[in-house]
Design brief:
With 351 residues, the protein is an alpha/beta fold. It is 40% helix and 20% strand. It is built from twelve helices and seven strands. A five-stranded mixed beta sheet has the order 3-2-1-4-5. A two-stranded antiparallel sheet has the order 6-7. Strand 2 and strand 3 (226-231) form a beta hairpin. Helix 1 (12-23) packs across helix 2 (29-42), helix 3 (47-54) crosses helix 4 (58-71) and helix 6 (113-120) crosses helix 7. The longest helix has 17 residues, at 313-329.
Length: 351
């Protein structure tokens, strides 16, 4: 049953708006029909005749006649719809976060999506995963850290960082350390062709050992170049022999050498007295990452040693020497950026 037709009285301003809406090529069809309904109703047309001309049901015409009569042009807009109530709310999110602060079930090393959903009881595992992704929470990734108990941490760190950012005039700053027990492993290597046609490089799990070498390295901070030698062992005598070769490479120059706290690096007062141009600077305890040569060792491992095979110790040493020569041909100093952190009021340098 169609409700009694409401009279529609258009103001001059509203009529101009509705007529412009009918003429516009970008007007949506729903808005065009509503405007025509109101204009025809204002001309005294009946509900059924308007419905036939516009191509809608009479009840639709009656609806927009009433909406305009009661609310004007605003009545021709769609009312906000409440929509479906969400199943999960901020309370659910807080429950997930609270559960992550608790230890996982007995026997498990860490929480997983299914374990969280099972513990919550009324939360779907897919929502758990969406929540973790939206908050960038990775349940698998792990970070490690090392806290230094050195009471002079700030002073030592400032000393080393100062050598990087403001080296003494007419002096050479060197970062020295050893990479011990580099193994000469012989592995079968080659290409593996998969059934889908894709070819991968690979190596066998079986290997043969051909000995180890210890690499002593000194990185010149100003240029990024490397001085390196091989040794069978890592004792004090080998360290001082390497330092003799370093001092020979920079005759009559003041050398500031950055070292970690290995025992062989300390208690070398007799050698230092014989080399007055050399001064040792030690990184804080458990903070060898402040030594830039550690960064170079990581580069060496990734670019030269990983995935290689050697049939002899000599081949390994020659391989490393060739890489050092190639690296020095294009060496550049590390560019360090600094950001202020609140840990102990020091500046932490990242490369």
């Amino acid at each position: 049953m169609i409700p009694e037709a409401r009279e529609v009285h258009l103001s001059r301003k509203d009529r101009k708006v509705l007529e412009a809406c009918c003429r516009s090529p970008v007007t949506l069809q729903r808005d065009l029909k509503r405007a025509r309904i109101v204009l025809l109703a204002a001309d005294g047309r009946s509900t059924r005749s308007i419905a036939k001309e516009v191509g809608v049901q009479p009840r639709i015409v009656s609806l927009w006649r009433h909406r305009y009569a009661d609310h004007g042009l605003e009545g021709l807009q769609d009312k906000p719809r409440p929509g479906k109530q969400p199943i999960y709310t901020k309370t659910t999110d807080k429950r997930i976060l609270k559960l992550l602060d608790k230890p996982p079930p007995q026997g498990f090393a860490r929480w997983t999506g299914p374990l969280l959903a099972e513990a919550l009881g009324d939360v779907d595992v897919q929502y758990v995963w969406r929540f973790l992704r939206s908050h960038k929470i990775d349940l698998v990734a792990r970070k490690s850290w090392c806290e230094s108990n050195d009471p002079n941490f700030t002073a030592k760190a400032a000393d080393v960082v100062g050598l990087y950012v403001a080296p003494p005039a007419k002096a050479i700053v060197l970062c020295v350390d050893e990479k011990p027990s580099i193994q000469a492993l012989e592995r079968a290597q080659g290409y593996l062709k998969l059934p889908n046609g894709r070819a991968l490089t690979g190596q066998s799990h079986d290997y043969k050992r051909h000995g180890t070498t210890t690499l002593f390295a000194a990185l010149e901070v100003a240029t990024g170049k490397i001085i390196a030698t091989h040794s069978k062992r890592r004792r004090r005598v080998e360290f001082l022999d390497f330092m003799n070769s370093v001092t020979a490479a920079f005759p009559n120059r003041k050398l500031h050498v950055i070292l970690d706290n290995l025992n062989t690096h300390k208690k070398n007062e007799d050698w230092l007295k014989a080399h007055p141009n050399v001064q040792f600077h030690f990184t804080p305890t458990s903070a060898s990452w402040l030594n830039q040569v550690e960064v170079w060792f990581s580069i060496l491992q990734g670019q030269s040693l990983s995935g290689t095979s050697f049939t002899s110790l000599k081949q390994l040493q020659e391989h490393i020497d060739a890489y050092v020569n190639a690296y020095n041909d294009r060496a550049e100093p590390f560019v360090w950026t600094k950001k202020k952190v609140s840990y102990g009021g020091i500046w932490v340098m990242t490369v």
